[in-house]
Structure formats: structure tokens, C-alpha cells
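Deliverable D5.2: sample structural annotation.
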Amino acid sequence: METAQELLIKGLAETGANVPGDAVDLFLHYLSELKRWNKAYNLTALKSDRDIIIKHFLDSLLFYRAFPEAIGDVCDVGSGAGFPGIPIAIVMRDIPVTLVEPSRKKCAFLRNISRALSLSNISVLESRIEDVEHTHFDIAVTRALFSIDEFIAKAKHIVRKGGCLIVNKGPKFQEELDKIPASTHFVHIPATLPLASLQRHLIRVTV
């Protein structure tokens, strides 16, 4: 059986991202802290290293494939235990990433892990996305929290004109696309989850 380090090395290579040299060590630290905090805070239902690495870390990095060429800052809406925001911040150290999360306990974890990993490009905002005002981002992302039309309705006010919202969906993505207004400008980017045979569907909506 492959070690967590071996899985990360192989999986990160498959993402296509330009991965910093210390990324594997940071992800291993993240994995350790997530498992430790999970005992009390119930941050994730996934238990095995393999599942967490593939279905949380690598799945989060698929967003990279849907990013526009020019990236200013990113907002992770409903960040939970930091997905996809923290994996993005680990790999893209020069991009400011704001994690928006209403749960006080989860925000405590997010602040702790940001300090533990020395990720100075991360900010944590304890709030519901509907209550965020006077703050705007180039990109807003979310992972499995909202349907596409719900995400547009709840988060478009935090995206600058010309910016985008990106969601990562499974096989029923078309059903959700059928519910958005016909005038919505979107791009569909299919992707295969590294180290797995699972198909993902990234939907980028321009605001």
C-alpha cells in the first residue's frame, strides 16, 4: 500500500499545477492536523489517508484547471475544513485566498492550520456568504455546498464585474445547468480526479 507521501507526490504531479517544492510536506502536515482536530470537531466524514488526499486535497486542486489566466484573489465560500481554499493556497502561494465559513469551530481550525502551515496568503472570515458586504473578489469557488443556481444567487454580489464563480460537480451537473437562466455565460471543463477514475465537471460562470 502506498504511503501518504507517495500518494501526494503522484497525485500532485497529475493535477497539472506548478507545485512548490514544499507542497508535499505542507499537505502531510495538513493531513495530520485535520485528523487530529476531526476527533473533536467532526470536520470530515472521510477517515483514510487515501480518501482525504484524493477526495479532498486533489479534488480541490482541480479548480486550478478552471481558473482564468489573470487571477487576482480567490474566495472559498463555505470553506468548512478548508476545501478547496487551503489546497489552492498551498499550491498558489502568490494568490490571496479568503476562506468564508459561518461555523466558529471550523473557523478556529482554519486559523490554526493557516498558522501551522505559515500560509500568509490566507484570510479567514467568519460569516455566511449572504452577510458579506463591501468585499469583492476576482474568483469565488465552492465545493459541493450549493447547486449552481444557488451559488450564483448567493455569491455573485462578492465577485467583481468580469470575475467568475467556479463550482466542482459530479455526474448530475447537467441537471443543475438546466436550471440556470439561459443568458448565463458559463464554460464546462471536464476533468478526471487524479489517482481515481472519477469524472468531475468544473463549471465557470462569468459575472
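Annotation notes: The chain has a mean pLDDT of 95. Residues 60 and 84 are 4 Å apart (CA to CA).
The annotation will be released with the project's public dataset once the embargo ends.
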